[in-house]
Amino acid sequence: MKATNFLGIAVLAVALAGPAAAQNAETPVKVGILNDMSSLYADLGGPGSVASARMAIDDAGGSLLGKPIELVNADHQNKPDIGANLARQWYDRDGIDVIADVPNSAVGLAVEGVSKEMKKIALLVAPASSDITGRNCSPYAAQWVFDTYSLAHVTGTAVVKQGGDSWFFITA
Q1: Full strand arrangement of the beta sheet holding 121-124
Q2: Which helix (H) or strand (E) holds 141?
Q3: pTM of the entire structure?
Q4: Per-residue pLDDT for 50 more than 90?
C-alpha cells in the first residue's frame, strides 16, 4: 500500500473510532487537511496531501463502514493563530471529526491544544517539535514523524560512538 494511501486510510479509521461512529449512516465522516498551501511547507504537504487524501477516499470507495467521507482543506499560512482558529471552527461549527497534516511545529502545537480542549482527533504529520509528545502530550493527538529530540539524540549518539568529535552545521 502506498504511504499516501495508508495515511488517508489511517485518518479515516481514527475518525470512525471517535464520536462519528455513533452518528447515523448518512452523516459523513469529515476529515480536514490543514496545511501550508502556498509557502515554504507547501511542497512537504500542501496540494499533494489533499490529493493523497482524495485518492485514499477513492480507494476506500468514498465511504468507510457505510459512512460517506467528506474532505475539506484549508491553508494555515504557517500562522499558529490562523491554524488554531480554523481547527476551532472546524471542530465546533463545521463538524470535522479529525484534522490531519499540519506541517509546521508552531501551528501543530496550536492545533494540538484545540484538539485537546475540544476532545477531537489531530494527526500531526510533519511538525517535529518534541513538545507534541512531551510537555504538551495529549490523548487526542498523534505525531506521525520523528521529533527534534529523538533525531538529535540518536544521530549524536551514533556519531560519537563512531569516534566523531567535530561538528559542523550548515543551515539556510
Answers
A1: 63-64, 67-75, 29-35, 98-101, 121-124, 141-143
A2: strand 141-143
A3: 0.79
A4: yes
